[in-house]
Amino acid sequence: MTTHTIGTAVLDRLHRLGVRHMFGIPGDYVLGLYKLMESSPIQHVATTREDCAGFAADAYARINGIGALCVTYCVGGLNTVNAIACAYAERSPVVLLTGSPGLSERARNPYLHHMVREFSTQREVFEKMTVAAVSLEDPVTAEREMDRAFAALLRYRRPIYLEIPRDMVHVPLAYTSHTTSTVDEPTDKAALREALAEVRTMLESAKRPVILAGAEVGRFGLHDELTTLVERLNVPIASTLLGKSIIREDHPLYVGVYSGLVARDEVKEFVNQTDCLLILGSILSDVEDLDARSALFSDGHTIHATADRVAIKHHRYDSILFEDFVKGLAKASLPSFPSPQLPTTAKPEEPMPPAHAAVSLLGVFRHLDTVLQEKTLVIADVGESLFASVDLHVHRRFEFLSPAYYTSMGFAVPAAIGAGFADPSLRPIVLVGDGAFQMTGSELATAVRYRQAPVVIVLNNHGYSTEREILEGPFNDIHEWRYERICDLIGGGQGSRVATHGEFVETLGKALADPSQPYVINVLLDPSDRSPAMMRLARRLAKRLSTDRP
Description:
With 550 residues, the protein is α/β, with parallel strands linked by helices. The chain folds into 3 domains: 160 residues, 3-Layer(aba) Sandwich (Rossmann fold); 143 residues, Rossmann fold (3-Layer(aba) Sandwich), CATH 3.40.50; 176 residues, Thiamin diphosphate (ThDP)-binding fold, Pyr/PP domains (Rossmann fold, 3-Layer(aba) Sandwich), CATH 3.40.50.970. Helix content is 37%, strand content 16%. The protein contains 22 helices and 19 strands. Helix 3 runs parallel beside helix 4. The termini are far apart. 51% of the residues are buried.
Protein backbone atom coordinates (compact mmCIF):
# COMPACT_ATOMS: atom_id res chain seq x y z
CA MET A 1 0.00 0.00 0.00
CA THR A 2 1.41 3.39 -1.01
CA THR A 3 2.13 5.77 1.87
CA HIS A 4 0.75 9.19 1.09
CA THR A 5 2.46 12.42 1.91
CA ILE A 6 0.30 15.37 2.87
CA GLY A 7 0.64 16.76 -0.66
CA THR A 8 -0.16 13.53 -2.50
CA ALA A 9 -3.07 12.82 -0.14
CA VAL A 10 -4.72 16.13 -1.05
CA LEU A 11 -4.24 15.57 -4.78
CA ASP A 12 -5.51 11.99 -4.51
CA ARG A 13 -8.61 13.14 -2.62
CA LEU A 14 -9.33 15.78 -5.24
CA HIS A 15 -8.96 13.26 -8.05
CA ARG A 16 -11.26 10.75 -6.34
CA LEU A 17 -13.91 13.45 -6.03
CA GLY A 18 -13.77 14.20 -9.75
CA VAL A 19 -11.20 16.97 -10.20
CA ARG A 20 -9.29 16.46 -13.44
CA HIS A 21 -7.99 20.03 -13.90
CA MET A 22 -6.37 22.44 -11.45
CA PHE A 23 -6.42 26.14 -12.32
CA GLY A 24 -3.78 28.50 -11.03
CA ILE A 25 -0.41 30.22 -11.13
CA PRO A 26 2.71 28.80 -9.44
CA GLY A 27 4.72 30.63 -6.81
CA ASP A 28 7.59 29.62 -4.58
CA TYR A 29 5.35 28.50 -1.69
CA VAL A 30 3.45 26.04 -3.92
CA LEU A 31 6.21 24.81 -6.24
CA GLY A 32 6.36 21.51 -4.38
CA LEU A 33 2.64 20.98 -4.98
CA TYR A 34 3.02 21.85 -8.65
CA LYS A 35 5.84 19.33 -9.00
CA LEU A 36 3.64 16.65 -7.44
CA MET A 37 0.86 17.57 -9.82
CA GLU A 38 3.10 16.69 -12.77
CA SER A 39 2.98 13.02 -11.78
CA SER A 40 -0.69 13.03 -10.78
CA PRO A 41 -3.72 12.52 -13.07
CA ILE A 42 -4.71 16.16 -12.50
CA GLN A 43 -3.75 18.56 -15.29
CA HIS A 44 -2.57 22.05 -14.39
CA VAL A 45 -4.31 24.83 -16.33
CA ALA A 46 -2.18 27.98 -16.23
CA THR A 47 -4.30 31.13 -16.09
CA THR A 48 -2.92 34.65 -16.39
CA ARG A 49 -4.40 35.94 -13.12
CA GLU A 50 -5.34 34.33 -9.82
CA ASP A 51 -8.83 35.83 -9.72
CA CYS A 52 -9.45 34.34 -13.16
CA ALA A 53 -8.31 30.96 -11.83
CA GLY A 54 -10.97 31.34 -9.16
CA PHE A 55 -13.74 32.14 -11.63
CA ALA A 56 -12.61 29.30 -13.90
CA ALA A 57 -12.66 26.83 -10.99
CA ASP A 58 -16.11 28.10 -10.02
CA ALA A 59 -17.56 27.48 -13.49
CA TYR A 60 -15.81 24.09 -13.61
CA ALA A 61 -17.46 23.18 -10.31
CA ARG A 62 -20.92 24.25 -11.48
CA ILE A 63 -20.71 21.77 -14.36
CA ASN A 64 -18.43 19.07 -12.94
CA GLY A 65 -19.62 19.06 -9.33
CA ILE A 66 -16.30 20.20 -7.82
CA GLY A 67 -13.51 22.52 -8.94
CA ALA A 68 -10.07 23.44 -7.63
CA LEU A 69 -7.33 26.03 -7.93
CA CYS A 70 -3.80 26.23 -6.57
CA VAL A 71 -2.11 29.57 -5.88
CA THR A 72 0.73 30.84 -3.77
CA TYR A 73 0.62 32.41 -0.32
CA CYS A 74 -1.10 35.80 0.15
CA VAL A 75 -0.09 37.55 -3.09
CA GLY A 76 -1.82 34.73 -4.91
CA GLY A 77 -4.46 33.69 -2.42
CA LEU A 78 -5.68 37.17 -1.57
CA ASN A 79 -6.08 37.84 -5.29
CA THR A 80 -8.78 35.15 -5.31
CA VAL A 81 -10.90 36.62 -2.51
CA ASN A 82 -13.60 38.02 -4.80
CA ALA A 83 -13.88 34.83 -6.86
CA ILE A 84 -14.07 32.63 -3.75
CA ALA A 85 -16.64 35.01 -2.26
CA CYS A 86 -18.73 34.54 -5.41
CA ALA A 87 -18.45 30.76 -5.11
CA TYR A 88 -19.47 30.92 -1.46
CA ALA A 89 -22.44 33.21 -2.08
CA GLU A 90 -23.72 31.10 -4.97
CA ARG A 91 -22.88 27.68 -3.47
CA SER A 92 -20.19 26.46 -5.81
CA PRO A 93 -17.96 23.72 -4.33
CA VAL A 94 -14.46 25.04 -5.02
CA VAL A 95 -11.27 23.89 -3.29
CA LEU A 96 -8.67 26.63 -2.80
CA LEU A 97 -5.30 24.93 -2.35
CA THR A 98 -2.45 27.16 -1.28
CA GLY A 99 0.97 27.07 0.31
CA SER A 100 2.61 29.04 3.08
CA PRO A 101 6.07 29.52 4.60
CA GLY A 102 7.58 26.36 6.05
CA LEU A 103 7.23 25.78 9.78
CA SER A 104 10.99 25.57 10.24
CA GLU A 105 11.72 28.82 8.41
CA ARG A 106 9.04 30.63 10.43
CA ALA A 107 10.97 29.77 13.58
CA ARG A 108 14.16 31.23 12.12
CA ASN A 109 12.69 34.43 10.66
CA PRO A 110 9.36 36.05 11.56
CA TYR A 111 9.48 38.31 8.47
CA LEU A 112 9.13 36.18 5.37
CA HIS A 113 8.04 37.53 2.00
CA HIS A 114 4.33 37.71 1.17
CA MET A 115 3.32 37.66 4.85
CA VAL A 116 0.79 40.39 5.72
CA ARG A 117 0.37 40.52 9.47
CA GLU A 118 0.75 37.04 10.89
CA PHE A 119 1.42 33.71 9.24
CA SER A 120 -2.24 32.80 9.79
CA THR A 121 -3.66 35.98 8.23
CA GLN A 122 -4.54 34.48 4.84
CA ARG A 123 -6.32 31.51 6.44
CA GLU A 124 -8.23 33.83 8.76
CA VAL A 125 -9.41 35.90 5.79
CA PHE A 126 -10.79 32.81 4.07
CA GLU A 127 -12.50 31.56 7.22
CA LYS A 128 -15.16 34.17 6.44
CA MET A 129 -15.90 32.85 2.94
CA THR A 130 -15.40 29.09 3.16
CA VAL A 131 -17.11 26.32 5.13
CA ALA A 132 -13.75 24.96 6.28
CA ALA A 133 -10.33 26.60 6.36
CA VAL A 134 -7.48 24.41 7.57
CA SER A 135 -3.70 24.49 7.58
CA LEU A 136 -2.24 20.99 7.28
CA GLU A 137 0.73 21.37 9.62
CA ASP A 138 0.68 18.08 11.54
CA PRO A 139 1.10 14.68 9.83
CA VAL A 140 -0.84 13.05 12.69
CA THR A 141 -3.98 15.17 12.26
CA ALA A 142 -3.71 16.11 8.57
CA GLU A 143 -5.91 13.28 7.27
CA ARG A 144 -8.66 13.99 9.79
CA GLU A 145 -8.52 17.69 8.96
CA MET A 146 -8.88 16.85 5.27
CA ASP A 147 -11.82 14.59 6.06
CA ARG A 148 -13.52 17.38 7.96
CA ALA A 149 -12.94 19.94 5.21
CA PHE A 150 -14.09 17.74 2.34
CA ALA A 151 -17.15 16.62 4.31
CA ALA A 152 -18.09 20.29 4.70
CA LEU A 153 -17.54 20.90 0.99
CA LEU A 154 -19.89 18.05 0.07
CA ARG A 155 -22.47 18.89 2.73
CA TYR A 156 -22.78 22.60 2.01
CA ARG A 157 -21.56 22.78 -1.62
CA ARG A 158 -19.43 25.79 -0.75
CA PRO A 159 -15.68 26.47 -0.97
CA ILE A 160 -13.03 25.11 1.37
CA TYR A 161 -9.49 26.35 1.99
CA LEU A 162 -6.52 23.99 2.32
CA GLU A 163 -3.11 25.40 3.21
CA ILE A 164 0.07 23.33 3.25
CA PRO A 165 3.32 24.85 4.58
CA ARG A 166 5.94 24.18 1.97
CA ASP A 167 8.09 22.01 4.23
CA MET A 168 5.09 19.75 4.95
CA VAL A 169 4.19 18.87 1.35
CA HIS A 170 6.43 15.78 1.26
CA VAL A 171 5.94 14.69 4.88
CA PRO A 172 4.29 11.22 5.10
CA LEU A 173 0.95 11.00 6.83
CA ALA A 174 1.31 9.49 10.29
CA TYR A 175 -2.34 8.44 10.45
CA THR A 176 -4.74 7.37 7.73
CA SER A 177 -8.45 7.34 8.44
CA HIS A 178 -10.71 4.74 6.93
CA THR A 179 -13.96 6.66 7.25
CA THR A 180 -14.96 10.14 6.21
CA SER A 181 -16.28 12.30 9.02
CA THR A 182 -19.65 13.94 8.60
CA VAL A 183 -20.63 17.50 9.38
CA ASP A 184 -24.24 16.93 10.40
CA GLU A 185 -26.38 14.18 11.75
CA PRO A 186 -28.28 12.39 8.99
CA THR A 187 -31.85 13.36 8.22
CA ASP A 188 -34.37 12.54 10.94
CA LYS A 189 -36.60 10.04 9.13
CA ALA A 190 -39.62 10.74 11.33
CA ALA A 191 -39.29 14.47 10.68
CA LEU A 192 -39.00 13.81 6.95
CA ARG A 193 -42.18 11.73 6.97
CA GLU A 194 -43.97 14.50 8.86
CA ALA A 195 -42.73 17.16 6.45
CA LEU A 196 -43.78 15.17 3.38
CA ALA A 197 -47.21 14.59 4.91
CA GLU A 198 -47.56 18.32 5.49
CA VAL A 199 -46.60 19.00 1.88
CA ARG A 200 -49.19 16.48 0.70
CA THR A 201 -51.90 18.18 2.79
CA MET A 202 -51.01 21.58 1.33
CA LEU A 203 -51.04 20.30 -2.23
CA GLU A 204 -54.36 18.50 -1.76
CA SER A 205 -56.04 21.80 -0.94
CA ALA A 206 -54.23 23.82 -3.62
CA LYS A 207 -55.72 24.87 -6.95
CA ARG A 208 -52.75 26.65 -8.58
CA PRO A 209 -49.47 25.22 -7.26
CA VAL A 210 -46.20 26.40 -8.78
CA ILE A 211 -42.61 25.22 -8.30
CA LEU A 212 -39.86 27.84 -8.18
CA ALA A 213 -36.47 26.15 -8.59
CA GLY A 214 -33.06 27.64 -7.94
CA ALA A 215 -29.39 26.92 -8.35
CA GLU A 216 -29.03 24.73 -5.26
CA VAL A 217 -30.94 21.99 -7.06
CA GLY A 218 -28.04 21.85 -9.49
CA ARG A 219 -25.33 22.19 -6.86
CA PHE A 220 -26.64 19.06 -5.12
CA GLY A 221 -27.12 17.13 -8.38
CA LEU A 222 -30.90 16.92 -8.04
CA HIS A 223 -31.92 17.75 -11.61
CA ASP A 224 -33.48 14.35 -12.25
CA GLU A 225 -35.44 14.43 -9.00
CA LEU A 226 -36.72 17.91 -9.85
CA THR A 227 -37.90 16.82 -13.28
CA THR A 228 -39.55 13.72 -11.80
CA LEU A 229 -41.38 15.86 -9.23
CA VAL A 230 -42.59 18.35 -11.83
CA GLU A 231 -43.90 15.62 -14.11
CA ARG A 232 -45.53 13.56 -11.36
CA LEU A 233 -47.35 16.59 -9.97
CA ASN A 234 -47.98 17.99 -13.47
CA VAL A 235 -47.48 21.52 -12.14
CA PRO A 236 -45.78 24.54 -13.73
CA ILE A 237 -42.19 25.33 -12.88
CA ALA A 238 -40.30 28.62 -13.03
CA SER A 239 -36.64 29.15 -12.30
CA THR A 240 -34.82 31.97 -10.60
CA LEU A 241 -32.28 33.95 -12.62
CA LEU A 242 -29.40 32.21 -10.82
CA GLY A 243 -31.12 28.89 -11.48
CA LYS A 244 -31.76 29.52 -15.18
CA SER A 245 -31.40 26.22 -17.13
CA ILE A 246 -31.94 24.15 -13.96
CA ILE A 247 -34.56 22.37 -16.07
CA ARG A 248 -34.79 22.16 -19.85
CA GLU A 249 -36.41 25.38 -21.01
CA ASP A 250 -38.28 23.53 -23.73
CA HIS A 251 -40.00 21.40 -21.08
CA PRO A 252 -43.78 21.68 -21.56
CA LEU A 253 -44.32 22.73 -17.92
CA TYR A 254 -41.60 25.38 -17.83
CA VAL A 255 -42.99 28.92 -17.71
CA GLY A 256 -39.82 31.03 -17.63
CA VAL A 257 -37.46 32.90 -15.34
CA TYR A 258 -39.02 34.46 -12.28
CA SER A 259 -36.91 37.38 -11.20
CA GLY A 260 -39.22 40.06 -9.95
CA LEU A 261 -37.29 42.99 -11.38
CA VAL A 262 -36.62 41.67 -14.89
CA ALA A 263 -39.06 38.79 -15.46
CA ARG A 264 -41.59 39.01 -18.26
CA ASP A 265 -44.89 40.41 -17.02
CA GLU A 266 -46.85 37.26 -17.83
CA VAL A 267 -44.41 35.05 -15.87
CA LYS A 268 -44.36 37.44 -12.93
CA GLU A 269 -48.14 37.59 -12.71
CA PHE A 270 -48.53 33.83 -13.13
CA VAL A 271 -46.20 33.00 -10.24
CA ASN A 272 -47.65 35.72 -8.01
CA GLN A 273 -51.16 34.23 -8.40
CA THR A 274 -50.24 30.81 -7.01
CA ASP A 275 -51.93 29.51 -3.89
CA CYS A 276 -49.11 27.07 -3.11
CA LEU A 277 -45.52 27.99 -3.92
CA LEU A 278 -42.95 25.21 -3.64
CA ILE A 279 -39.54 26.91 -3.54
CA LEU A 280 -36.64 24.50 -3.99
CA GLY A 281 -33.03 25.61 -3.70
CA SER A 282 -33.70 29.28 -4.38
CA ILE A 283 -31.89 32.20 -2.80
CA LEU A 284 -34.61 34.84 -2.45
CA SER A 285 -32.32 37.82 -2.85
CA ASP A 286 -33.13 41.37 -3.83
CA VAL A 287 -32.20 40.36 -7.40
CA GLU A 288 -35.00 37.78 -7.44
CA ASP A 289 -37.35 40.19 -5.62
CA LEU A 290 -40.27 37.87 -4.95
CA ASP A 291 -43.15 40.37 -5.05
CA ALA A 292 -45.67 38.00 -3.54
CA ARG A 293 -43.23 36.90 -0.87
CA SER A 294 -44.77 38.67 2.11
CA ALA A 295 -48.34 37.59 1.36
CA LEU A 296 -47.44 34.01 0.53
CA PHE A 297 -45.25 33.59 3.59
CA SER A 298 -47.65 35.29 6.00
CA ASP A 299 -50.65 33.31 4.72
CA GLY A 300 -48.85 29.99 5.02
CA HIS A 301 -48.91 29.12 1.33
CA THR A 302 -45.18 28.47 0.92
CA ILE A 303 -42.91 25.46 1.12
CA HIS A 304 -39.33 26.72 1.15
CA ALA A 305 -36.44 24.25 1.09
CA THR A 306 -32.79 25.23 0.77
CA ALA A 307 -29.45 23.85 1.87
CA ASP A 308 -29.84 25.90 5.05
CA ARG A 309 -33.35 24.93 6.07
CA VAL A 310 -36.65 23.29 5.24
CA ALA A 311 -39.68 25.41 6.13
CA ILE A 312 -43.30 24.48 5.45
CA LYS A 313 -45.96 27.10 6.16
CA HIS A 314 -44.89 28.38 9.59
CA HIS A 315 -42.95 25.26 10.58
CA ARG A 316 -39.21 24.83 10.34
CA TYR A 317 -37.50 21.43 10.14
CA ASP A 318 -33.86 21.70 11.15
CA SER A 319 -33.17 17.96 11.06
CA ILE A 320 -33.90 17.41 7.36
CA LEU A 321 -31.16 17.69 4.75
CA PHE A 322 -32.12 19.50 1.56
CA GLU A 323 -31.16 16.66 -0.76
CA ASP A 324 -33.14 14.13 1.28
CA PHE A 325 -36.19 16.39 1.21
CA VAL A 326 -36.09 16.79 -2.58
CA LYS A 327 -35.50 13.08 -3.12
CA GLY A 328 -38.36 12.37 -0.73
CA LEU A 329 -40.69 14.66 -2.67
CA ALA A 330 -39.80 12.92 -5.93
CA LYS A 331 -40.76 9.53 -4.44
CA ALA A 332 -43.69 10.58 -2.24
CA SER A 333 -47.34 9.86 -2.92
CA LEU A 334 -48.47 13.35 -3.89
CA PRO A 335 -51.53 14.49 -5.86
CA SER A 336 -51.36 14.98 -9.61
CA PHE A 337 -53.00 18.07 -11.06
CA PRO A 338 -54.93 18.64 -14.30
CA SER A 339 -52.88 20.08 -17.14
CA PRO A 340 -52.34 23.73 -16.22
CA GLN A 341 -53.05 26.73 -18.41
CA LEU A 342 -49.59 28.22 -18.79
CA PRO A 343 -48.97 31.89 -19.49
CA THR A 344 -48.79 32.80 -23.15
CA THR A 345 -45.47 34.27 -24.16
CA ALA A 346 -45.98 37.77 -25.39
CA LYS A 347 -45.11 38.21 -29.04
CA PRO A 348 -42.20 40.53 -29.78
CA GLU A 349 -43.45 44.07 -30.14
CA GLU A 350 -40.96 44.82 -32.90
CA PRO A 351 -39.88 42.72 -35.90
CA MET A 352 -36.33 41.49 -36.35
CA PRO A 353 -34.23 44.51 -37.40
CA PRO A 354 -33.29 44.75 -41.09
CA ALA A 355 -29.71 43.99 -42.04
CA HIS A 356 -28.84 47.66 -42.63
CA ALA A 357 -30.16 48.81 -39.23
CA ALA A 358 -27.75 49.83 -36.50
CA VAL A 359 -26.96 46.88 -34.27
CA SER A 360 -29.06 46.84 -31.10
CA LEU A 361 -29.50 44.79 -27.97
CA LEU A 362 -32.96 43.78 -29.12
CA GLY A 363 -31.56 42.49 -32.40
CA VAL A 364 -28.57 40.78 -30.79
CA PHE A 365 -30.64 38.77 -28.33
CA ARG A 366 -33.50 38.13 -30.74
CA HIS A 367 -31.01 36.61 -33.19
CA LEU A 368 -29.13 34.72 -30.47
CA ASP A 369 -32.38 33.04 -29.52
CA THR A 370 -32.61 31.57 -33.02
CA VAL A 371 -29.09 30.09 -33.12
CA LEU A 372 -28.67 28.48 -29.69
CA GLN A 373 -28.20 24.75 -30.09
CA GLU A 374 -28.04 21.62 -27.95
CA LYS A 375 -24.31 22.03 -27.35
CA THR A 376 -24.28 25.78 -26.81
CA LEU A 377 -23.38 27.05 -23.34
CA VAL A 378 -24.37 30.65 -22.60
CA ILE A 379 -22.21 32.40 -20.00
CA ALA A 380 -23.45 35.84 -19.01
CA ASP A 381 -21.52 38.48 -17.16
CA VAL A 382 -23.24 41.19 -15.11
CA GLY A 383 -25.36 44.03 -16.52
CA GLU A 384 -27.20 43.92 -19.82
CA SER A 385 -25.36 40.67 -20.53
CA LEU A 386 -27.25 39.07 -17.66
CA PHE A 387 -30.60 40.84 -17.66
CA ALA A 388 -31.17 40.54 -21.40
CA SER A 389 -30.41 36.82 -21.13
CA VAL A 390 -33.60 36.30 -19.14
CA ASP A 391 -35.48 36.03 -22.43
CA LEU A 392 -33.08 33.56 -24.08
CA HIS A 393 -34.29 29.97 -24.40
CA VAL A 394 -31.56 27.44 -23.66
CA HIS A 395 -32.19 23.86 -24.67
CA ARG A 396 -30.63 21.72 -21.97
CA ARG A 397 -29.78 21.98 -18.31
CA PHE A 398 -26.27 23.22 -17.48
CA GLU A 399 -26.43 25.50 -20.52
CA PHE A 400 -26.52 28.85 -18.73
CA LEU A 401 -23.99 30.16 -16.21
CA SER A 402 -23.90 33.54 -14.51
CA PRO A 403 -23.09 35.17 -11.15
CA ALA A 404 -26.72 36.29 -10.92
CA TYR A 405 -26.81 36.68 -7.13
CA TYR A 406 -23.32 37.87 -6.19
CA THR A 407 -23.19 39.82 -9.49
CA SER A 408 -19.45 40.24 -9.77
CA MET A 409 -18.28 41.75 -13.04
CA GLY A 410 -15.48 39.91 -14.81
CA PHE A 411 -16.88 36.41 -14.28
CA ALA A 412 -17.79 35.33 -17.80
CA VAL A 413 -14.55 35.17 -19.80
CA PRO A 414 -12.54 33.11 -17.25
CA ALA A 415 -15.68 31.05 -16.56
CA ALA A 416 -15.64 30.02 -20.22
CA ILE A 417 -12.16 28.56 -19.68
CA GLY A 418 -13.33 26.49 -16.73
CA ALA A 419 -16.49 25.36 -18.49
CA GLY A 420 -14.48 24.34 -21.53
CA PHE A 421 -12.41 21.95 -19.45
CA ALA A 422 -15.40 20.65 -17.47
CA ASP A 423 -17.28 19.69 -20.65
CA PRO A 424 -15.32 20.10 -23.90
CA SER A 425 -18.41 19.13 -25.91
CA LEU A 426 -20.05 22.47 -25.08
CA ARG A 427 -19.32 25.61 -27.13
CA PRO A 428 -19.40 28.66 -24.86
CA ILE A 429 -21.04 31.87 -26.02
CA VAL A 430 -19.81 34.57 -23.67
CA LEU A 431 -21.98 37.66 -23.20
CA VAL A 432 -19.95 40.40 -21.59
CA GLY A 433 -20.13 44.16 -21.34
CA ASP A 434 -17.23 46.38 -22.28
CA GLY A 435 -16.60 47.28 -18.64
CA ALA A 436 -16.42 43.66 -17.52
CA PHE A 437 -14.27 42.72 -20.50
CA GLN A 438 -11.72 45.34 -19.50
CA MET A 439 -11.42 43.56 -16.15
CA THR A 440 -10.73 39.96 -17.23
CA GLY A 441 -10.97 39.78 -21.03
CA SER A 442 -7.24 39.17 -21.39
CA GLU A 443 -7.84 35.67 -19.97
CA LEU A 444 -8.72 34.74 -23.55
CA ALA A 445 -4.98 34.12 -23.86
CA THR A 446 -5.58 30.94 -21.86
CA ALA A 447 -8.23 29.83 -24.34
CA VAL A 448 -5.73 30.27 -27.17
CA ARG A 449 -3.04 28.40 -25.24
CA TYR A 450 -5.28 25.38 -24.63
CA ARG A 451 -7.00 25.47 -28.02
CA GLN A 452 -10.43 26.37 -26.73
CA ALA A 453 -12.91 28.22 -28.92
CA PRO A 454 -15.34 30.42 -26.99
CA VAL A 455 -17.36 33.00 -28.89
CA VAL A 456 -17.10 36.26 -26.95
CA ILE A 457 -19.73 38.90 -27.69
CA VAL A 458 -18.67 42.24 -26.22
CA LEU A 459 -21.73 44.44 -25.70
CA ASN A 460 -19.92 47.72 -26.18
CA ASN A 461 -22.17 50.51 -24.92
CA HIS A 462 -19.28 52.67 -23.72
CA GLY A 463 -19.79 52.28 -20.00
CA TYR A 464 -21.77 50.82 -17.14
CA SER A 465 -25.36 50.60 -18.36
CA THR A 466 -26.92 49.25 -15.16
CA GLU A 467 -25.43 52.06 -13.10
CA ARG A 468 -26.66 54.55 -15.69
CA GLU A 469 -30.19 53.35 -15.01
CA ILE A 470 -29.69 54.02 -11.31
CA LEU A 471 -27.81 57.32 -11.50
CA GLU A 472 -26.48 58.94 -14.64
CA GLY A 473 -23.09 60.60 -14.57
CA PRO A 474 -19.70 60.72 -16.31
CA PHE A 475 -18.36 58.25 -13.73
CA ASN A 476 -20.24 55.57 -15.70
CA ASP A 477 -18.21 56.19 -18.86
CA ILE A 478 -15.14 54.10 -19.68
CA HIS A 479 -12.26 54.47 -22.11
CA GLU A 480 -12.95 53.00 -25.54
CA TRP A 481 -10.94 49.91 -26.53
CA ARG A 482 -10.68 48.16 -29.86
CA TYR A 483 -11.78 44.92 -28.25
CA GLU A 484 -11.51 42.84 -31.40
CA ARG A 485 -7.79 43.56 -31.59
CA ILE A 486 -7.07 41.57 -28.44
CA CYS A 487 -6.74 38.55 -30.74
CA ASP A 488 -3.60 40.12 -32.22
CA LEU A 489 -2.24 40.74 -28.73
CA ILE A 490 -2.76 37.17 -27.47
CA GLY A 491 -1.63 35.52 -30.69
CA GLY A 492 -4.78 33.71 -31.71
CA GLY A 493 -8.46 33.92 -32.49
CA GLN A 494 -10.47 36.12 -34.82
CA GLY A 495 -11.75 39.56 -33.92
CA SER A 496 -14.49 41.54 -35.64
CA ARG A 497 -16.15 44.89 -35.15
CA VAL A 498 -19.84 45.12 -36.08
CA ALA A 499 -22.04 48.18 -36.40
CA THR A 500 -25.14 46.84 -38.17
CA HIS A 501 -27.52 43.99 -37.48
CA GLY A 502 -26.52 42.28 -40.71
CA GLU A 503 -22.84 42.42 -39.80
CA PHE A 504 -23.61 40.85 -36.42
CA VAL A 505 -25.66 38.03 -37.96
CA GLU A 506 -22.96 37.28 -40.53
CA THR A 507 -20.08 37.42 -38.03
CA LEU A 508 -21.81 35.27 -35.44
CA GLY A 509 -22.67 32.71 -38.09
CA LYS A 510 -19.05 32.54 -39.15
CA ALA A 511 -17.91 32.14 -35.55
CA LEU A 512 -20.36 29.36 -34.74
CA ALA A 513 -19.36 27.49 -37.90
CA ASP A 514 -15.68 27.52 -36.89
CA PRO A 515 -14.94 25.58 -33.67
CA SER A 516 -11.19 25.77 -34.19
CA GLN A 517 -10.48 29.11 -32.51
CA PRO A 518 -11.89 31.84 -30.25
CA TYR A 519 -13.89 34.72 -31.69
CA VAL A 520 -14.29 38.20 -30.26
CA ILE A 521 -17.19 40.24 -31.66
CA ASN A 522 -17.10 43.92 -30.70
CA VAL A 523 -20.76 45.00 -30.92
CA LEU A 524 -20.95 48.80 -31.24
CA LEU A 525 -24.10 49.81 -29.37
CA ASP A 526 -25.66 53.17 -28.74
CA PRO A 527 -24.99 54.08 -25.07
CA SER A 528 -28.72 54.74 -24.62
CA ASP A 529 -29.77 51.34 -25.99
CA ARG A 530 -31.63 49.12 -23.53
CA SER A 531 -32.87 45.56 -23.73
CA PRO A 532 -36.54 44.81 -22.99
CA ALA A 533 -35.45 43.26 -19.68
CA MET A 534 -33.51 46.37 -18.67
CA MET A 535 -36.52 48.52 -19.52
CA ARG A 536 -38.68 46.31 -17.30
CA LEU A 537 -36.08 46.70 -14.56
CA ALA A 538 -36.07 50.49 -14.91
CA ARG A 539 -39.88 50.67 -14.91
CA ARG A 540 -40.22 48.54 -11.79
CA LEU A 541 -37.43 50.32 -9.94
CA ALA A 542 -39.05 53.66 -10.73
CA LYS A 543 -42.38 52.39 -9.43
CA ARG A 544 -40.77 51.09 -6.26
CA LEU A 545 -38.90 54.32 -5.65
CA SER A 546 -42.06 56.38 -6.17
CA THR A 547 -43.98 54.31 -3.61
CA ASP A 548 -41.09 54.42 -1.13
CA ARG A 549 -40.97 58.22 -1.07
CA PRO A 550 -42.67 59.87 1.93
